[in-house]
């Protein structure tokens, strides 16, 4: 009898447990009653249950214990639904999501210590999602960010060597450190911890189909949420995982510029593995002949990324990684004349001229060890490798405590083999002969120029007259434009082993949300730079020149090697290393003063240590040069270490703070304001560039950044907008110029000037959708950027300081910042058809702080059409810069070797009205056909 009762009790208990397990299912539709795929459905109680709607908009959660839950339904581009549910037995409910035109109800994580809807954030933040990605031709990270309101993005050089900044916080980002003030991130951590010349975060970043969205924060809370990047954060967030096998494959092909092809394939796949394990993986590969004409493939390579995730009732654990192996290059400027209306000259073309050295394969002695050589081939460009692995977790600790930590280890390598400078150097200019070996010896007499590839003689000249003022005279033949290209083989080896992490503890109270933690990063980095003069023709599609001195009765003196390379390793030499540590502690409290008013206060103390050294160097001057042969002049002046090093060991400590208020006018509108005081410690270029062969006695200046902003956000049924009025000031800007001394052939940086800039402006972002199938978007910035205190050091073209001076340009317009910048677009989506057209306007900019040269405003138009062939397959045709606008993005100054933008003063222009100068045009037209298969 007892056994029977026990069996009956167990049976009854099991029956009760079975009955108490419920199922929750439903259907997700948009406002047109069409099913929505990929919607996230989250049930939260003591445990978290998550699923994603399928292609029919359906979802199901099974084995749910009866009880009370908080339901959250979210999808990018739609307003989030949050409601309390009591679930018992089988529960079914359908939902309709209303459009969220500016994603103001979408949760954002960038610039916020805790995820929150954008509408409740007291920051100026924008998002780009996957539907907007499909309107952008794949031309690099900066090109994509041109679509972010208030962001100046210069992608004229290609995929790397780009410039991105906001709100006039730009001064140190005008040349080879284009991301100086902003943080480029992947899933919340910086792509790279350090920067210096030709080594920036964009070198190791490629946007592809694995990206779900980009969150862009302009200034503000970046001072307390980013590592040494107070100017803003651009965070590329990866696609979410799915419980079912799904993914996407994208194939693209197209042409750019003068019919140059590009081929690219992207793929992404995700699936559940059972027992709350999930994985996702993807990446891309491309082959790109380039937007401008070169005799080599401009870009090739790709990357692979993966995530492995384990979810539990308290959060998740994620292992992730990336392998990037990619080669690309960057475009130099193009010569122009007519200071008031720049026009290409010397037979060049703003759309198609690349003016880069052609492909060849030379072996140049390595200045660090003269018994070895470095292979140099301009077709290799910038070869970037990045192997990264990370671990991210979030866990609920109970009692409203939680902890999140994200840690990443990476191994980076970047090798540059490309040309630097492409200036006009007349055959009557002594510079071209002096640079053969820094005047050791100076070749005088009959100079023979041969095509290095074919061996055919192009010209023979007599340069004896340059000392008598009559210049060089042709004996036979001629060189294009009577000149050679003033260029150098630019060889750089960069390595960095890095580890970085962000640890955050969170405690939630009834009216307070407290976050505090530790961010740290450590980098062991090194850089080697070597430059040699190279002879090539000054024309479209330059040819390398083998050059000799052939005076009657004398031995032939080889001024270049067989490939046209001269003055082996004699122009540049840098061999440096550094250990960098960045440690920050932070605290932030969000105080819910009332149901409508939120106060956000944060502090961040950061300590950055730079410890390293630069090699001292001297020329190798043995008789006959490195090979001991007095008939080869090209190896007579190789720069090599002396064995001494100039060490540096400096620590930069600073406290940043930021406070914001958010007042909720109603469920769809809010006012916000913020005051931020941030700082920027120097990057490694301060030591590597400014102290060539001299001791480093002083640390660099910490730049101070103050920002005030006031904004309004509103999300209505058919019209949404955000607008932000801002004021920003940047102090202690260390400004220097890159100079060339033609008397002794040395290249140097001028003494640093500490300057100040100030910008006031208005940013806006808006969408108007009068009917469901049509939307108009308008975003941009109107600003007044000023160089409020600014001096420029004038070295008078020589290293000798006795004739130096400084010029005061205080009160002038800040260079390279437009007063007006906007994007205006129209989008049409109905059934299976979609289309868009976009107008991008770049306003007038000053080409230098002297305000002597202006870069005119320009417009580009982009357009595209798409068709959904069936449930899985779709096609898109995209075109950028449809009308081949010849807009100018940058200005490098006079068209002479070693010149810079600040040298083109009003006095110089008036004295040289017919002189040529160097500008950098925007990229020409590109068209792409995309095929997308979703499964």
UniProtKB/TrEMBL annotation:
InterPro entries per the UniProt record, alphabetical: Beta-barrel_TonB (IPR000531), Beta-barrel_TonB_sf (IPR036942), CarboxyPept-like_regulatory (IPR008969), Plug_dom (IPR012910), Plug_dom_sf (IPR037066), TonB-dep_rcpt-like (IPR039426)
- Keyword RNA-binding in the entry? The reply is no
Domain TonB-dependent receptor-like beta-barrel residue range list: 456-881
Q: Which UniProt keywords apply?
A: Cell outer membrane, Ion transport, Iron, Iron transport, Membrane, Receptor, Signal, TonB box, Transmembrane, Transmembrane beta strand, Transport
> One Pfam family for this entry, by name?
Plug
- Please indicate which superkingdom the organism of origin belongs to: Bacteria
| Signal sequence region | none
Its annotated compartments are: Cell outer membrane
Instruction: Give the chief site where it resides.
Output: membrane
Membrane topology classification: Multi-pass membrane protein
Q: Does the keyword Transcription regulation apply?
A: no
User: What GO molecular functions are on record for this protein?
Assistant: siderophore uptake transmembrane transporter activity
Boundaries of each TonB-dependent receptor plug domain copy? Answer: 118-233
Instruction: Give the record's GO CC terms.
Output: cell outer membrane
Task: State the similarity comment.
Answer: Belongs to the TonB-dependent receptor family.
This chain's protein is named TonB-dependent receptor
- Species per Swiss-Prot/TrEMBL record: Neotamlana sargassicola
